[in-house]
């Protein structure tokens, strides 16, 4: 049966309402060699980044600059989309630079095409240790597919022909010679009607420093990558350092307000022996009021049919998608996209939760390794009834992690809440949790000081993202080594957000009667009075930092704890006593500096603890004077005099004289 055009319009409209709640997640491409955290490269990059928002406005939307001397010379390039609002462009550039600083840890090359949903603007920020101006840069490439697939009932051959034709038109528009004198010259936006889609939108842009032919090559590479990897998805985008490509069945970024729609090709004529053409006989006019009544009735009928089509389409979409991975769903609270997996699919992926696939056991339940039909490996967290993580924690973790994206946070792929099962599905992080390394006599030797420092810094950056840089303000409340996962390169990922607390952006402190977390890692004001703030996480981070340095669990020091033990050795002028013997060949001054930072993080007075942003600054600087710590929480009164503190220089002098 041939599809009704009205049905197509209704389905497209329903998809538009749903898909407009989605926006491509901004991500950063990181490449090139690593630079030393103590080198001047990061200062040069940050110095250039601090001026980009103003410079790009002053230079009509495109600006490039460099700073420093080789090998720490930094080259940057910034670009705003055509038709940008100046303030929106500045906001976009500032967001992009923060994204690079947070995600490209010590990497020379980086780029991001940042998108701002509210301001309808996109921008590019790129940095490198070599000049890229005038050069076609294709690597790395970042690709974002839509979570939805084109219906199998569509005529894909016809769709591909119309899509390819649209690509050709957009490429030609973006690279045509008449734009050669414009600063933002390589830009093309196309809006078209397809035979089976009412509207398709496509946008392409290149940096203006490359040639028209290079721009065309870059865009063609984007299109080729898309068709190779994700053909059949309902939209998405490909980002490269020199160009940007996106298409969707709905308008995005406000780029199509003044773009004329290309009509669909004419439909095939009805055969002579087909259905007869309906004619309208002439007769008496029904009048103006009659027209109004007819329109009102038809509108009401269409509304009822529209609602029915939405429900029917949603049911059909869930049924079809479940045959692959799960069902695409949207939360009732804020329209956030999250993938609901079928219990049968998870059972198949984990071989019915077999013991051979079991990765770990805890009070909350078990974690199993699994493999989806597409070959992707996953970690399945299966909660048990009566576990420490109940319905509230389950929903909390799903709600938060679907909106958080950072290289130092574990990625939640989806969930399952079916029958009596509550299951979370994560990316598989192959090296298990940090406690399996740092507290294991054999594996701890794999954690050299360089590796430990990278883990410590990565955890700090993950917390900084939660506290200050994400769209949400999150207090984790249960930071400890067992909740830090390690990927194949031993990069840390903060996990287990079941007890995390969401703050308003201007909220700094809250109180609760429900204390959740692990004793020994909880700040005193939280444990004793239920006071929650970002400084609560800072305290937990300080305890974990001291554990990383000593290789000992906090609870190994019964009666006082690791923080109190470290403080006593600090006052005695012997902080090196707490350092793991495996690190004796490593830079002792740098390790003692981190002991000092750890003691500052566990101060009893929350106001005297540093923020995570300040901790990261201390990590990377050799010139900034770090304050002296006072006695941490839970120590005896005879250790609480500020005069008992020794300066770092005195300690170093004492050590060198031995």
Protein topology:
Blueprint: H1 5-19, E1 29-34, H2 41-58, E2 62-67, E3 74-80, H3 86-103, E4 107-116, E5 121-128, E6 142-145, H4 156-175, E7 187-192, E8 200-206, H5 212-230, E9 236-240, E10 243-248, E11 261-262, H6 287-322, E12 326-330, E13 337-341, H7 343-349, E14 358-362, E15 365-371, E16 377-383, H8 391-401, E17 412-418, E18 421-427, H9 435-438, H10 449-469, E19 473-475, E20 484-486, E21 492-494, E22 501-503, E23 509-511, H11 524-529, E24 531-533, H12 534-550, H13 561-571, H14 588-601, H15 612-620, H16 648-656
Parallel strand pairs: 7-11
Antiparallel strand pairs: 1-4, 2-3, 3-5, 4-5, 6-9, 7-8, 8-10, 9-10, 12-13, 14-15, 15-16, 16-18, 17-18, 19-22, 20-21, 23-24
Helix pairs in contact: 1-6, 2-3, 4-5, 10-12, 10-15, 12-14
Structure commentary:
The chain is of the alpha+beta class and 658 residues long. It folds into four domains: 5-20 and 146-262, Killer Toxin P4, Chain A (2-Layer Sandwich), CATH 3.30.430.20; 29-133, Killer Toxin P4, Chain A (2-Layer Sandwich); 338-427, Phosphorylase Kinase, domain 1, CATH 3.30.200.20; 435-656, Transferase(Phosphotransferase), domain 1. Helix content is 36%, strand content 19%. It contains 16 helices and 24 strands. The protein has helices spanning 5-19, 41-58, 86-103, 156-175, 212-230, 287-322, 343-349, 391-401, 435-438, 449-469, 524-529, 534-550, 561-571, 588-601, 612-620, 648-656, and strands at 29-34, 62-67, 74-80, 107-116, 121-128, 142-145, 187-192, 200-206, 236-240, 243-248, 261-262, 326-330, 337-341, 358-362, 365-371, 377-383, 412-418, 421-427, 473-475, 484-486, 492-494, 501-503, 509-511, 531-533. It has a six-stranded mixed beta sheet with strand order 6-9-10-8-7-11, covered by helices on one side. The protein has a five-stranded antiparallel beta sheet with strand order 1-4-5-3-2, with helices on one face. Strands 14-15-16-18-17 form a five-stranded antiparallel beta sheet, with helices on both faces. A hairpin with a 7-residue loop joins strand 7 (187-192) and strand 8 (200-206). Helix 10 runs antiparallel to helix 12 (534-550). The protein is globular. The termini are far apart. The relative contact order is 0.06.
């Amino acid at each position: 049966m041939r599809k009704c055009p009205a049905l197509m319009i209704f389905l497209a409209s329903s998809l538009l309402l749903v898909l407009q709640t989605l926006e491509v997640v901004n991500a950063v491409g990181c490449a090139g060699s690593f630079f030393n955290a103590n080198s001047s490269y990061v200062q040069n990059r940050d110095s250039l980044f601090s001026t980009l928002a103003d410079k790009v406005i002053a230079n009509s939307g495109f600006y490039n600059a460099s700073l420093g001397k080789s090998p720490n010379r930094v080259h940057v390039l910034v670009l705003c989309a055509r038709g940008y609002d100046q303030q929106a462009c500045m906001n976009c550039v500032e967001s992009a630079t923060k994204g690079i600083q947070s995600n490209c840890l010590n990497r020379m090359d980086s780029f991001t095409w940042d998108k701002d949903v509210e301001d309808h603007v996109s921008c590019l920020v790129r940095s490198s240790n070599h000049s890229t101006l005038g050069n076609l840069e294709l690597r790395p490439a970042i690709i974002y597919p839509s979570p939805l697939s084109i219906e199998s009932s569509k005529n894909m051959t016809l769709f591909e022909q119309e899509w390819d034709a649209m690509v050709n038109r957009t490429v030609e528009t973006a690279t045509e010679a008449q734009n050669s004198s414009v600063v933002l010259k390589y830009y093309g936006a196309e809006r078209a009607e397809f035979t089976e889609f009412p509207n398709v939108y496509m946008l392409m842009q290149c940096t203006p420093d490359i040639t028209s032919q290079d721009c065309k090559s870059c865009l063609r590479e984007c299109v080729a990558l898309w068709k190779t990897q994700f053909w059949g998805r309902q939209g998405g985008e490909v980002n490269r350092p020199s160009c940007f490509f996106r298409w969707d069945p709905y308008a995005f970024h406000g780029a199509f307000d003044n773009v004329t729609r290309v009509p669909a090709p004419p439909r095939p004529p009805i055969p002579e022996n087909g259905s007869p053409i309906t004619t309208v006989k002439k007769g008496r006019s029904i009048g103006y009021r009659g027209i109004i009544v007819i329109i009102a009735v038809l509108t009401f009928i269409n509304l009822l049919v529209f609602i029915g089509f939405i429900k029917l389409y949603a049911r059909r979409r869930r049924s079809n998608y479940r045959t692959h991975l799960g069902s695409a769903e949207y939360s009732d609270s804020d329209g956030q996209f999250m993938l609901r997996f079928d219990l049968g699919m998870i059972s198949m992926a984990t071989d019915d939760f077999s013991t051979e696939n079991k990765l770990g056991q805890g009070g909350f339940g078990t974690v199993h390794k699994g493999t989806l039909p597409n070959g992707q490996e996953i970690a399945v967290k299966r909660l048990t009834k009566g576990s420490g993580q109940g319905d509230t924690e389950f929903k909390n973790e799903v709600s938060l992690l679907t909106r958080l994206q950072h290289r130092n946070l574990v990625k939640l792929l989806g969930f399952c809440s079916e029958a009596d099962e509550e299951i979370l599905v994560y990316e598989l992080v192959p090296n298990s949790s940090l406690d399996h390394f740092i507290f294991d006599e054999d594996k701890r030797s794999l954690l050299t000081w360089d590796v430990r420092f990278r883990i410590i810094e990565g955890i700090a950056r993950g917390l900084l993202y939660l506290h200050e840089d994400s769209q949400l303000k999150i207090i984790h409340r249960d930071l400890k080594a067992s909740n830090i996962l390690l990927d194949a390169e031993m990069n840390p990922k903060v996990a287990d957000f079941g007890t995390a607390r969401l703050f308003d952006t201007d909220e700094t402190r809250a109180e609760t009667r429900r204390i959740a977390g692990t004793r020994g890692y909880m700040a005193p004001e939280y444990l004793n009075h239920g006071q929650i703030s970002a400084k609560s996480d800072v305290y937990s981070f300080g305890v974990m930092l001291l554990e990383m340095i000593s290789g000992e669990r906090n609870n190994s020091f019964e009666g006082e704890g690791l923080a109190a033990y470290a403080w006593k050795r600090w006052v005695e002028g012997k902080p090196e006593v707490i350092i793991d013997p495996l690190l004796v060949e490593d830079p002792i001054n740098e390790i003692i500096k981190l002991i000092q930072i750890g003691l500052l993080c566990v101060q009893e007075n929350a106001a005297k603890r540093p923020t995570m942003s300040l901790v990261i600054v201390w990590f990377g600087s050799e010139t900034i004077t770090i304050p002296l710590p006072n006695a941490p929480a839970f120590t005896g009164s005879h250790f609480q005099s500020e005069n008992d503190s020794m300066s770092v220089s005195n300690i170093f002098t004492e050590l060198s004289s031995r």
